[in-house]
Amino acid sequence: MEKGSGSPAAGGSCPQKNAEILSSQYGINLFLAGLLLTFAWAVHAVGISKSHLLSYLITLMFIQLLWMLWYLCRSCTQRRLIRDKDTHAGARWLKCGITLFAVITLILDSFKVGYYIDFSNCLSPTEGIFPVTHAAHTILQVYFLWCHAKDIIQSFKTLERFGVIHSVFTNLLLWTNGVLTESKHQLNEHKERLITLGFGNITIVLDDHAPQCNCTTTTLCSIFSQGIYYLYPFNIEYHILASTMLYVLWKNIGRKVEHHQQHKTPFKFHGITVGMIFGLIVLTSTIAVVVVYLIQIGRSKVKSELALTMFYLHAIFVLALMCTAGVVALLIYRLEDRSLDNSKNPARKLDAELLVGTAAGSWLLSWGSILAIICAQAHPKYTWYNLPYSVLVIIEKYIQNLFIIESIHREQEKANDDIKTLRIVTICRGSTLSLTPSYKEIYNGRATCDIGELPCLVSSSICARESDGGGSANEETNQGNSPVMHSASEFSFYSRSSVADNKRRILKNIAAFLFLCNLSLWIPPAFGCRPEYDNGLEEIVFGFEPWIIVVNLAMPFSIFYRMHSAASLFEVNCKT
Questions:
Q1: Is residue 231 located within the same domain as residue 275?
Q2: Membrane-spanning residues where (predicted)?
Q3: How far is CA 532 from the centre of its chain?
Q4: What residues have CB less than 8 Å from 536, skipping those under 6 apart?
Q5: Which of 7, 173, 221, 511 could form a disulfide with 573 if both were Cys (CB 3.0 to 4.6 A apart)?
Q6: Which of 259, 278, 245 is nearest to 94 (CA)?
Q7: Angle formed at CA 568 by CA 108 and CA 168, multiple of 5 degrees
């Protein structure tokens, strides 16, 4: 077993760096092999079938299952040992989120099992084994992340690096497989709708992977086949969240942490009513727009154009509100003088990198739409709404990224030094009793001094207890001065507290509003409301196949950005 300590100059540091490099290269090659296999199946390469891809994924999941079982058993035998923990990793709300997505993923697996049973005469056995293996993998992985996401591994570090990185890229390949399957389904629906918008010159060739046999129960087959694609967005989010949590665990292997008290930041609804109300209005209206869009699009050319116009107008309004809220939050930060926390934190660094990296997906789509509008020879009326929409998408993500990244890097506000020196001495019948009001009372200005109480604002000292002999005289003196007169310093302290409290309340409402807005903007692309497909203008300028490739590559990152932003904003709300 390897030692978990040692100076940077120690001999063990070089082998551990090599182990990190080797494990990362192993994971990348594992991913590239699976990626090429997935691509070969998608383009119907000769000699490559879906069973080959599923066999590869089943093997990877089985290896990860063995590693997780070994890790859990070893941890159980060493449960009495005190281990270092990364308090920033694996937040409870993140675990609850991944658990919710995992439950829906299990429902998806059950649908796949039912689908396989109905088409068992012409489907490969791997299509029945895969959902069963995936369900077992999901259950054990969620349990593993709940129990060990915060671990800082200091033993068997070389072996654990390979085990964790294997798990990271296994989840990334499962995410890729889900994205591709869902994208192929969306593409088939898009090809069928294009003709209604008047783009008859585009050849419609459906990419069909349907079974070549009849279903035993037609009604159940329809339910399973349609339900699967509505559940895929949750499965996709589950695997990308799992891979990010496992990546943080991998980065924490052998890490040295400072042992300090971590402040708990629970989520509270108090004080964010305004932000929640406006956010819920946006969420409700977005769901209504998506429902109408999916019903109207593809019915006729007129209805499709009205659906696109409705979507663009709603999105422009929401994005404008989000930009305004983000600018207000940044202006409040500029008025405050608070230092940034630049300590090493893998979870926080990954959050910032994911925000910028995944935003590039929607930026690519937006710039493609802007260029198409500029270069197109004909402009249907509804396409002009695409221009302000695309510009606002770029600006909104830019502002929101600045707000989130600065928020997660700002140090938490500590109690003012004046609070530490504030003591209230109660004099009652010649005896003294030192009382310290709670932080909440002092901060909100509710620490009042009744008759017989005397504020004692002294630095590095405590009010001396009066002697028994002089108690009577001092009692009379104190009773005479019982109406407490706040000093100028106290008044200034309460004023600063009130201003800071108002700023914090505004920031919490903005974070809550943006949280719900990002959830709202995650819903349309995740459930098939994609104007990038249905607009048609980009396909004329860039060509059908090139633009569809761009959309299929960029859209998964755009969808993940919204969910990751919502998670980050939830953390900002708790921290503010």
A1: no
A2: 26-47, 53-72, 93-117, 129-146, 229-250, 271-295, 311-333, 354-379, 506-528, 540-561
A3: 24
A4: 194, 197, 198, 199
A5: 511
A6: 245
A7: 50
Give the model's pLDDT for residue 388.
93
Other C-beta atoms lying within 10 Å of the C-beta of residue 109: 22
DSSP H or E stretch at residue 426:
strand 422-428
What are 533-547's pLDDT values in tens digits?
A: 878 788 888 887 788
User: What per-residue confidence (pLDDT) applies to 496?
Assistant: 59
According to DSSP, residue 263 is labeled P
In this structure, which amino acid lies at residue 190?
A: H
**DSSP-assigned beta bridge partners for residue 431:** 428
Question: What's the mean pLDDT when you consider all of the chain?
Answer: 77
Measured CA to CA in angstroms, residue 538 lies from 184, 267, 304, 310, 362 at distances of 19, 43, 16, 19, 15
> Could you give the 3-state DSSP secondary structure of residue 48?
coil
- The segment with the largest mean pLDDT, out of 51-65, 76-90, 517-531, is 51-65
Burial of residue 223 (number of CB atoms within 10 Å: 0-12, 13-18, 19+): middle
* Interatomic CA distance for residues 247 and 416, integer angstroms: 37
* Dihedrals phi, psi of 429, to nearest 5 degrees: 55, 45
Residues 139 and 273 in one domain: no
Split into its structural domains, the chain has a count of 2
Please name the residues in contact with 554: beta carbons below 8 A apart, sequence gap of 6 or more: 361, 362, 364, 365
- The reply to whether 354 and 275 lie within a common domain is yes
Q: What are phi and psi of 427, to 5 degrees?
A: -105, 120
**Within-domain flag for 450:** no
Q: Which of 457, 523, 513 is nearest to 489 (CA)?
A: 457
208-217, 362-371, 408-417, 542-551 — most confident range: 362-371
Q: Please give the residue that has the higher pLDDT: either 207 or 486.
A: 207
Residue 33 has a CB neighbour count (10 Å cut-off) of: 14
- Is 331 inside a domain boundary? yes
pLDDT at 451: 38
Q: Is the pLDDT assigned to residue 52 strictly greater than 80? A: yes
Distance CA(254)–CA(347), nearest Å, equals 15
- What are the angstrom distances between the C-alpha of 119 and each of 175, 184, 216? 25, 20, 7
Compute the distance between CA of residue 185 and CA of residue 373 in angstroms, rounded to an integer: 27
DSSP tally for the chain: helices H, then strands E: 17, 3
d(CA 205, CA 314): 33
Neighbours of 235 (CB within 10 A): 27
Instruction: Read off the pTM.
Output: 0.72
Cβ 427 vs Cβ 467: under 8 Å: no
* Domain extent at residue 109: 15-256
Residue 340 has pLDDT above 50, yes or no: yes
Q: Are residues 138 and 179 in the same domain?
A: yes
Say which residues have a Cβ less than 8 Å from residue 412's Cβ, sequence separation at least 6.
Answer: 263, 265, 575
> Do β-strands 431-435 and 422-428 pair in parallel, antiparallel, or remain unpaired?
antiparallel
In whole angstroms, give the CA distance from residue 482 to residue 428: 12
Edge-to-edge strand ranges of the sheet holding 431-435: 431-435, 422-428, 453-457
Does some domain include residue 10? no
**Residue 445 located in a structural domain:** no
- Strands 453-457 and 431-435, by their bridges, are unpaired
- Supply angle C-alpha 92, 98, 102, rounded to 5: 140
